[in-house]
Amino acid sequence: MMVKSLQDTTILHNGVKMPWFGIGVFKVEDGPELVNAVKTAIQHGYRSVDTAAIYGNEKGVGKGIQEGLEEAGIPREELFVTSKVWNADLGYESTIAAYEKSLKKLGLEYLDLYLIHWPVEGKYMDAWRALETLYKEGRVKAIGVSNFQIHHLEGLMKVAEIKPIVNQVEYHPRLSQKELQAFCQDNGIQLEAWSPLMQGQLLDNEVLQEIAYKHNKSIAQIILRWDLQNGVITIPKSTKEHRIVENANVFDFELTKEEMEIIDGLNQNLRVGPDPDNFDF
Asked: With DSSP H G I counted as helix, E B as strand and the rest as coil, what are the percentages for the chain, rounded to 5?
């Protein structure tokens, strides 16, 4: 599968178009640096921004979006904005209230994608009903989940009226989650990668270095290209302009089948984030 540009989209199972590539803002402090990063990304052609209530930076993201759209001269409809409801708000009413709060902070009238951040047992079913309500009312374009394993998805799909549209999970060459990906593919759920660069832990990997050298690319670019060729949406985080530009410069080359398999071979089921099954909420 060849994704050809930063604006290329995939069509989600409800017909909504979502960019293959975006900018993430996990752990970026609210303030001028964040506003500037979001604005810079939009100016350089990014059309997807991913945040979450728990990041505490929706206000800055909203400001960056507003300034970025104004300066780039593009309408809000061309940008795909994602946020997530935090664990403490996973009731029916509280999820709807959390959505309102996120919208207000972001200064937006709707979100393109709203996700349940973690599969807190006994709580996410009510939250999902709230997401379905928001979706049916046309207040959000797509709904999904984050950090859900196969058994969480199966449980949810037994009672859900609307099947999750996206599942955003930790995904990188050391955690390639092939079974989960196959399950999502079979069920029309789009997989999306957070922490695609394993928080920098893969950037001196010799195997990846060799492939990077062949393509005259950085290791980060090789990993992000691997995501895309695996059919996984990716949202690398950066606040530095040269890195924001470099991360997105992955559309002028293709990894060979052999190179893809070599990178697949780096999997060790290793997480940098919490294990969704043993996360102390």
From this structure: 45, 15, 40
